Description:
Blueprint: H1 4-9, E1 19-23, H2 32-40, E2 43-47, H3 51-67, E3 73-78, H4 90-95, E4 97-100, H5 103-106, H6 112-115, H7 123-133, H8 140-150, H9 162-174, H10 181-192, H11 202-205, H12 209-229, H13 259-267, H14 296-312, H15 321-341, H16 344-368, H17 384-396, E5 402-407, H18 412-425, E6 429-437, H19 444-453, H20 470-479, E7 488-494, H21 499-506, E8 514-519, H22 521-527, H23 532-545, H24 548-558, E9 562-566, E10 572-576, E11 588-589, E12 593-596, H25 599-606, E13 612-614, E14 625-629, E15 633-634, E16 641-644, H26 650-653, E17 654-662
Parallel strand pairs: 1-3, 1-4, 2-3, 5-8, 5-9, 7-8, 10-15
Antiparallel strand pairs: 6-17, 9-17, 10-16, 11-12, 12-14, 13-14
Helix pairs in contact: 8-10, 14-15, 15-16, 15-18, 15-23, 17-19, 18-23, 19-20, 22-23
Amino acid sequence: MSSWRGAILSDFVPNVSKLTLVADPDCLLTEEKLALELRGRGFDLIEFNDPVEFRYAYESKYRSIWDRGEHTDLVVILRLQDAELESLPYDLLQASRKLSFNLGDLFPTFSYPVIENLDRSLLDALFEAQLKSSPDRMGDNATKDFILRHVFGIAAELIASEVDLFRALLRLHYGNLQIPLMLAERLIQVLKGHDGFSAWPLSEIVPDDEAFFAFLQERWPVFLSRLGSGANQVREDSPEYRLKYLGPDHLPFDHQDIKVYVDNLFLEGKLTPVEATDIEVDAGDWVRSGIATSCVDDEELRISRLFDLVEKELPTAESRYSDWTAFALKWAELSSLVHCANSTEHETRLREIGDALNTTFAGWLADHYSSLINLPPTNPVMLHHVSRRLARDIEGSGNSRTALIVVDGLALDQWVTIRQLLQKQDATLVMRESAIFAWIPTLTSVSRQSIFSGKPPLYFPSSINSTNSEEKLWKQFWEGHGLSRLDVAYQRGLGDGDASSVLDVVIHPGKTKVVGLVVDKVDKIMHGMQLGSAGMHNQIKQWCNAGFLSALVGQLLDYGYDVWLTADHGNIQCEGKGRPSEGVIAETRGERVRVYPTPELRSQVAGAFPFAHEWQPVGLPANYFPLVAGGRDAFVNPGEAIVGHGGVAIEEVIVPLVKFERRAR
């Protein structure tokens, strides 16, 4: 087999059995590329998680097809070992064939407890290395060393100098490689055997991206001072350079293997430029991006370099979802800068790149979106994974309290603008930033309910057009995870006033274990916006400067909650291309999406509006057929400009997911 997927796919031939039960304890069938291949062969995948939910989907969608004598290739996935399949309902066992797959069979020479911790996207590199080297059976440490070398490109035993170590850590953290904790601990163990690294805070900066970048941030001013004044004039105990992280005060930022990373770290917002009045550098100098001045030319330079960066890294139709989310974070940095600068020239260039980007993204979504739904929630990929991730954290950690803030309508680039203000308002905040896919259509009633219910919209058909059931769905979700309704709080309509007073009404700090909060201020700004994306950023800045969000996050952290923030959808500036005159046949009449009860009615309208796409109702209830606007077009009067949502632009679909923590004061 040329791929680990081949061993699995050989068992999936269409039209062999209408129903296949698969024991899949290692979440292999839901890996993005494998799920895509299975769907390409005509197989539908459904996960058996909650028996009641499964029965609803199974009976409503598949039993009726079989009763008509039609065939399906349905695959029911269970996160169970092979022996536990027999615990399933009798009617499923009688009507199905049964299969089982696990990592131990695919990678027999490696330690199973080690490889099961790997992100499934890394299995390709491991399988290829296994084919090339044909290793003998390995124990835990040998498996860890093999993976570090062949998957992460880190030969720990060959790291002999500070430059080697610095370079290895940059590759690891800048590349967002998601190293499992047990591999990080093995790397630390090997590195601690080297006398030259005894001063480095390895236990903090090896496993943790945020700690590593904070470690670099506080050493960058020291490097600049040495650069400007000469190394002999800088005292290591100077009070302005009191370092919170132990380790060498001077890092070799200027080494040829290191400085290639430094420019991008500042461009992408992972590091923050600092003032250095005694250094004169040219515009093209590699340190320029790390020096803060009030000069307009510096902002222009950063925008120009970010444009060059994103144009080089545009994802393709074959990219993974993780490539799109990583790119979306860079695109958001650039978009925030451009919209805040309010430069017509830059806005035009951003729009041109964005139009081409969204054409590719829409095609990618049509092929790949369905493969994201059943991915495991360990690192959430879609919004309905978020609540499940919070539940896992509560079950697996000592902290039994968590808070989820949903900022209605907050686009990823607007989060970047907010993040910069939050950093100024509270220097102790640590923001672990990632990005996640909203539900399509990107409507509040669809996507926000999926957050609070922890389910695809398929499972709340009766409330799909309203948000009034959110509190009930939120409390039902947590009851299913062992909490009492009295332990769970929910409040919407937030964004103004005194955050502490709001929380005093909503929660009891000593008793409330889970709280869900909806901040709708950004959505209100959006729906009244007549000044486009630049106006959005300006008003969001004004709102954030008032301090409500900073105070809300800070108070929740002080009460001992794990605090998360996400959004139900983003938004995009768009222009009207015509409003359908359809009377009552559309159940939802949005600016970027219309929803119809039958595909025939949808097709009638789609024929008159060639800019719109008939979105396949993936994970949506029966009789729910969206017609989404493409590009920057909208279902409003021609020539009318709006900021809206509901469609499939990257600005609407990929939204922030942030975990807040406190840095030691």
